[in-house]
Specification:
Elements lengths: L1 H23 L15 E3 L2 E3 L13 E2 L6 E2 L1
Antiparallel strand pairs: 1-2, 3-4
Length: about 70
């Protein structure tokens, strides 16, 4: 009985790790929106578009901005 519980626990852990790995490497799951084409960012803020903040995610997109968009 103890061995089958250990095997079950191992399968659950392996499944969780595998699922997390696939999710993390599956690419951008959000659809980027392009708006205010040509706006720029510098140390003084945003030029040519409404002010928005936040860093970029691994895809080079503003992760915290609405709508989610990329440069």
């Amino acid at each position: 009985m103890k061995i089958s519980r250990k095997i079950l626990a191992g399968v659950i852990v392996a499944t969780a790790i595998g699922t997390g790995f696939v999710y993390a490497n599956s690419g951008g799951l959000r659809a980027p929106v392009e708006f205010f084409k040509g706006h720029t960012h510098d140390s003084e803020g945003t030029h040519g578009a409404p002010s928005h903040s936040g860093g970029t995610d691994r895809n080079g997109c503003h992760n915290g901005s609405v709508p989610y968009h990329c440069h």
